[in-house]
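User: Batch of two.

Assistant: Item 1 of 2:
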Amino acid sequence: MLPPAEREGHGHHYYSEETLARLRKIDQLKQLGLSLDEICDVIDLYFTDPSGIQPKQKVFAVPRKHLAEASRKIGDLQQFRADLQANIERFECFLAAKQQL
């Protein structure tokens, strides 16, 4: 994601203004919840598309995808919870019936 930085004799890194801008953009994208792989897919667009529209469209697709995945997982968990509740109720009925014998 970043070009190699120059080093001084004491091991300090020196970054260009463009590299610092990339670092700031990477931090912003991380704060939006993008993974490093997702950031790698869009970071160059921020520095090649002067309008900024294309990178923003790609970035906004990521949280939408995450939201859809979260909704699917919530649905799966709700179904799992309902199945558990039904199994518990059946088991309780079975135990109640056995205790009455």
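Item 2 of 2:
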Amino acid sequence: MRVCVIGAGVVGVTSAYFLARQGFDVTLVDSRERPAEVSSFANGGQLSYSYVAPLAGPGVLPNVPSWLLRADSPLRFRPRLDPHQWRWCLDFVLACRASVARTSTAELSTLSYLSRDAMHGLLAQEPIEFGHVRNGKLIAYRDAELLEKARRLVAYQAAHGADQSILSAEETLALEPALNGMRGKLAGAIYTPSEESGDCRLFTEGLFDKLKTLPNVALRMSTNVRGLRRRGAVITAADSDKGDIQAEAFVVASGLGSRTLLGPLGEDLPLYPLKGYSLSVPLAHEDEGPAISVTDYERRIVYARMGKTLRIAAMVDIGSADAAIDPQRIALLKHQVAEIFPKLDLDAAVAWAGLRPATPGSKPIIGPSRSAQNLWLNVGQGALGFTLACGSAALLTAQLAGVATPIDATPFLPK
């Protein structure tokens, strides 16, 4: 069977690879010349398999009013005359209920652990250089009360396979001396020794290069898919600016572009762009940045080492029209980073902004579309795109192949 995969970000490329390895003939299509040119280009870099709590949680809503009023807020909201924005925000609020968040955490954990195993299996078969390290992760808390609340989440995630511990401030600094800039402000941290990090773009490019060597894969880059041709309940072709692309099945993995592509078919995907920012900082010396991945919880800033580069990612802007870099947000981010890591050469940092395709409850949509019998979706991974990509691809491949799925697919099916 010929499968056309639309989208060459990390989710699309992993989907194409897993499908090809399953024996499908695959055509991968993207409007860009190279893979990973949009949301996968310079994201946070953490492979956070054990910490996949959804963005919507019971602790979020009480903080929203103060966040919206602060100039240094990790969250910025720009209301628009857009019914889709308000529907998404309403669904996000409903997903913040504690019962919903607990269920979502458990469901996301099954997908993340599948993704970890799938990634490790892939790398055992296809060595790829992408600054990959298994260096653990610290979630640093400034507020003692928030750290105490985090204990409940640690206990809950332990029941679903996570290996985590609570560290005091002194234990945290002993484990990661680079956090000395937080001394006196640090309440403690959650430590997960098994977490990993790497450069998502380099991983995607490396896997894309592996696809080039497979005889059952055709790559159609610099090809813009303008729509999908449907006859009755079947998609017959992808309409592109370089002619129709024929296949027996079609997989849409094009992030936010999926809404535009599927809208004419009557599919209204619950995706909304959450704009985030990152800095890529060159490291001249080992002690300039943390050796362990770090999340500054209250400021929602993540730090991930990738070889001789430190990737720093932060912020959520809701209602931004595009991925343009906001100089004020970058200046704020640099100021906050310098407080903790004064040795970093932030003048040499490369800034980036991207739009994360997020669902209200943070769960991706993986499975058969309601719009056509031979149309499949793999979208909505949001800020967890790199973490969940391999698991999402493995789950999709099993569904498309008609074999037993490695985990329960129900929580991720299109609704």
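The two ends are 26 Å apart (CA to CA).
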